[in-house]
Design brief:
The protein has an 8-stranded antiparallel beta barrel. α1 packs across α2. By secondary structure, it is of the alpha+beta class. It has 2 domains: 46 residues; 190 residues, Porin. The protein is 20% helix and 55% strand. The chain is elongated, with a radius of gyration of 33 Å. The chain is built from 2 helices and 10 strands, in the order ααββββββββββ. The protein starts with a helix and ends with a strand.
């Protein structure tokens, strides 16, 4: 009987001691440094993971470069077109408004070449080439989808400042030609719209960007600006392929 009482008392004391220890550790984990340390480490891991996935930065930036084809869109008689290759190179800054929408500001050096051939009134075949170099400043609204390869869309306006322009002409029938600077004959500032789409591919903590976009110029050029250009009023338009890197 004494042994039984001793065993019962021992078990009771052991259970009470175990419960008190369990309560102590529970309170420590919920109110003490253990839980705080765990939360701190967990938050740091989530923050780092979010940054690695390009998620929470308010601003991101990078650079882009590529090639393009430009065309004189005639509002009068229709010439024959060819499309020499031009180039575009610049930087961008993206201001994220939400997970899906951003405002993208870009600054490009853009070198475009437009070439047309016209049958003249004296049965000549006049080949004309216009070389222009601009500082182009697009301001674009970007919509980011959750589709495969992070596809996104662009829509916005662009403003271009003319650096210089040259005009070459050559008559393929009479074999005469010439060239001249026409910087002062073109508008210094021109405006237009840009529409495009792109995809970005994760590479370590950054992204590789691939884009295609169309430039639609709304600035009209008058026929009196060029003595030999007989196509009426005209505008510029372009198709551009870009590859870039986002930090």
């Amino acid at each position: 009987m004494k042994k039984l009482l001793f065993i019962l008392c021992f078990n009771f004391i052991f259970i009470q001691n175990f419960r008190s220890q369990e309560k102590y550790y529970y309170n420590t984990l919920n109110n003490g440094t253990y839980l705080n340390s765990f939360n701190y480490i967990n938050n740091r891991v989530l923050t780092l993971d979010s940054k690695q996935n390009g998620g929470n930065e308010k601003f991101v930036f990078g650079f882009k470069g590529g090639v393009g084809w430009w065309k004189i869109t005639s509002l009068g008689n229709g010439p024959t077109y060819s499309y020499p290759l031009g180039f575009t190179l610049g930087i961008f800054l993206e201001n994220r408004l939400s997970q899906q929408f951003s405002i993208v500001n870009e600054f490009f050096l853009q070198n475009s070449i437009t070439k047309i051939t016209i049958l003249t009134h004296v049965e000549g075949l006049l080949e004309q080439t216009l070389y222009t170099r601009y500082f182009n400043l697009p301001i674009l609204l970007k919509y980011q989808t959750d589709w495969l390869a992070n596809t996104y869309f662009y829509l916005g306006s662009s403003f271009a400042y003319l650096i210089n322009a040259e005009y070459d002409f050559y008559d393929q029938i009479y074999h005469i030609g010439g060239n001249s600077s026409v910087t002062e004959k073109l508008p210094t500032i021109s405006a237009g719209f840009e529409i495009g789409l792109g995809e970005k591919f994760k590479m370590y903590n950054s992204y590789i960007i691939m884009e295609i976009r169309t430039q639609l110029n709304i600035t009209k050029f008058q026929p009196k600006d060029f003595d030999n250009l007989s196509i009426g009023e005209w505008k510029n338009s372009g198709l551009i392929f870009l590859i870039g890197y986002q930090f």
